[in-house]
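Same chain as my last thread, 154 residues:
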Amino acid sequence: LALDVTRTVPVTVKQGTYASEAAVSGIRAASVKIERPVDVERPGIPGAYPEPIMNDKVKVSGTLSPDFQAKADFADRFLAHTSPPSLVLQWTGALIASTYHHQLTITCPKVYYREAIPGVDGPDIIKGSVAFDAFYDTTNGLVIGTLMSTDTTV
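reply #2:
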């Protein structure tokens, strides 16, 4: 499953202590990749393979494209590699009804930044990319995804 809604819907990014994250400004785009490795080539009756089974842990990773307005947001966390923050990515779309919008929220209770590389291209705002990996948090659990839509059945 690969998720890329950066071209159509703006993203809000928050990070910090789990359940009390603060908004980070200047995020131009975000993408999330959820990998669920399965064994699909198990032996079975020819033409009728058995149901795939998971053969590794779910992996969640992604990339943010921020303006590096405050080095404490990403660069310092990347360099220190301590006290991993919680990261919330929220895409909000059109109004559905009343106060409900189409919305996708990915909450990662514990992330480590693999790369936080700013690019200096002159006097403009410093831009770059920040790659992250989400990990299981023994206190707050796994990555949580919520989707608000007009669908009535699953």
